[in-house]
Write a structure and sequence with these properties.
This protein is an alpha+beta fold. It is built from four helices and five strands; from the N terminus they run αααβββαββ.
Length: 143
């Protein structure tokens, strides 16, 4: 669970303005997260919608395509944000990635699935970028 160097700087830059509501706060944190991640990787798409669901963001990190799920938690009652990414959600992300590659004519690729955790209980919110949060070993026919 190694955070990107620029993500560590997020504590200093996130949501300097006063947000009106929690939804706006989450949107503000998400925008700042994408801005900070963009400094490390090339942003290809935000909120990429497919028949299989939506990827929060897609980046290019060198030769690797990175599909990112952003999860926020106000409290830890039900676990960490990353723990909320279920096996079903992981399968959907594989389908989303396959759809993206097919739609864009990409045949030769390396892919990675990251999770960005946002803890909104803290002020400012804490963001944790988990690289390679999940893979598809053990998924049988899905990989």
């Amino acid at each position: 669970m190694q955070a990107c160097v620029c993500m560590k700087k997020l504590h200093a830059c996130v949501c300097r303005k006063t947000c009106v509501c929690k939804r706006e706060l989450h949107a503000c944190v998400y925008r700042k997260t994408c801005v900070c991640m963009k400094n490390c990787m090339l942003l290809l798409s935000k909120n990429y919608s497919t028949p299989y669901g939506e990827a929060d963001a897609i980046f290019r990190d060198g030769e690797e395509y990175v599909f990112v799920e952003v999860k926020a938690r106000k409290r830890m009652t039900y676990g960490t944000p990353a723990e909320a990414v279920t096996k079903s959600k992981m399968k959907r992300y594989l389908q989303i990635a396959q759809y993206y590659f097919l739609q864009n004519g990409i045949e030769d690729y390396a892919v990675r699935f990251d999770v960005v955790e946002v803890y909104t209980l803290c002020e400012p919110p804490v963001v944790n970028h988990i690289k390679n949060a999940f893979d598809f070993s053990g998924f049988g026919e899905f990989y």
